[in-house]
Amino acid sequence: APLRHYNFSAGPAVLPESVLEEAGRNLMSLGDTGVGIMEHSHRGKPFVAIIERAEALIRKIANVPDGYSVLFLQGGASLQFAMCPMNFLPDGGTADYLMTGSWSKKAGKEAKLFGKVHTACSSEATNFDRIPSPAETTYSDDPAYVHFTSNNTIFGTQFPTEPTPPGDAFLVCDASSDIFSRPVDVSKYGLLYAGAQKNLGPSGVTLAILRNDLLERKCREVPAMLDYKTYVEGQSLYNTPPTFGIYVLMLVLEWIEKEGGLSAIGERNEAKATKLYDYLDSSKLFKPTAAKGSRSLMNVCFVTGNEETDAAFIKYADERGLKTLKGHRSVGGMRASLYNAFPPAGVDKLIEAMQEFESTHA
Ligand code: PMP
């Protein structure tokens, strides 16, 4: 077997080994078709069966209610930052954004191109170390929608539960870094989107789940490729979709189902992250940066308080096969991303390395 390190990357990130092996086996020939998975037409029977199966698995795994569409888009979550307001934020209208990190700010910046943006809450004053409570969140009078980032990849914070939008505003969620990491109540959302490259598959595919009646709230003419309606009506096959990415996504969804679905995955994620936070809370050297009650189960950020010691630990860990632990520059220190496919043994290995390092550096 090829050498495989423990990969703590924030994204693109670790995928299940069984998925990588299965994808590898089908590169030269998808099943017995004699044509590789990347070489099949997106209109041919084999690929249409794959995209339909991917959609069916999403509906089953996330218990998607009737009246919602499952869409496979491109342009990453970043294009959704623009596509959502382009479709749903009228000129002169207001959308409310919960500012809990760099990605929420980027989303809000794009929305300003189309209408007004009201900051419903922000934790920027404390370097986004927490999720503001509902009591600290103030909505505008009549927002078109409320946008939030369920998990803040850079700062390692995560909403314990989703916010409740006022009036008939609908809820929009960027779930790029915690999609399908725990059970989700899709009925609470108008639009839920995520780049695939953390919990779902390779980069290049963006999953969106959209409540169909919202298409009636489209507020301006937009190019076909930026119109949700195009993807709803064309079953995400208006143009050539990222076929290989959708195939791998389908394999990841099969893996999620085999693992016991979102509640089993959620329990495993909770166990992995809790083990690491418990160690960090007891450590004399390492400290978690996110406030208790806001801590992400996906991205665990921690520091020693000394940049040189941080760098020394990152090197120490790297030499032991614990890769990509360097934190984002806006937080510094370390970030251990523990997405669905990250093995529990990798957490044990990291804690062991920290204990050893601590005994010589504390
Ligand atoms: N939102 C969040 C929460 C992210 O973590 C990222 C990527 N790290 C993005 C948006 C941007 O995603 P993309 O690169 O797919 O545009």
UniProtKB/TrEMBL annotation:
A biological process term (GO) from this entry: pyridoxine biosynthetic process
Subcellular location: Cytoplasm
Record InterPro entries: Aminotrans_V_dom, Aminotrans_V_PyrdxlP_BS, Pser_aminoTfrase, PyrdxlP-dep_Trfase, PyrdxlP-dep_Trfase_major, PyrdxlP-dep_Trfase_small
Keyword set, alphabetical order: Amino-acid biosynthesis, Aminotransferase, Cytoplasm, Pyridoxal phosphate, Pyridoxine biosynthesis, Serine biosynthesis, Transferase
Cofactor entry: pyridoxal 5'-phosphate
Binding positions (pyridoxal 5'-phosphate): 77-78, 103, 153, 174, 197, 239-240
Keyword Cytoplasm carried by entry: yes
Keyword Transferase: yes
UniProt main location, coarse: cytoplasm
Gene Ontology CC: cytoplasm
Domain Aminotransferase class V: residue ranges: 6-350
Co-factor binding details: Binds 1 pyridoxal phosphate per subunit.
Residues binding L-glutamate: 43
Class of this enzyme: transferase
Reaction equations catalysed: O-phospho-L-serine + 2-oxoglutarate = 3-phosphooxypyruvate + L-glutamate; 4-(phosphooxy)-L-threonine + 2-oxoglutarate = (R)-3-hydroxy-2-oxo-4-phosphooxybutanoate + L-glutamate
EC number, UniProt record: 2.6.1.52
Pfam families per UniProt: Aminotran_5
Pathway info: Amino-acid biosynthesis; L-serine biosynthesis; L-serine from 3-phospho-D-glycerate: step 2/3; Cofactor biosynthesis; pyridoxine 5'-phosphate biosynthesis; pyridoxine 5'-phosphate from D-erythrose 4-phosphate: step 3/5
Gene Ontology molecular function, alphabetical: O-phospho-L-serine:2-oxoglutarate aminotransferase activity; pyridoxal phosphate binding
Similarity remark: Belongs to the class-V pyridoxal-phosphate-dependent aminotransferase family. SerC subfamily.
Assembly with partners or alone: Homodimer.
Function: Catalyzes the reversible conversion of 3-phosphohydroxypyruvate to phosphoserine and of 3-hydroxy-2-oxo-4-phosphonooxybutanoate to phosphohydroxythreonine.
Protein name: Phosphoserine aminotransferase
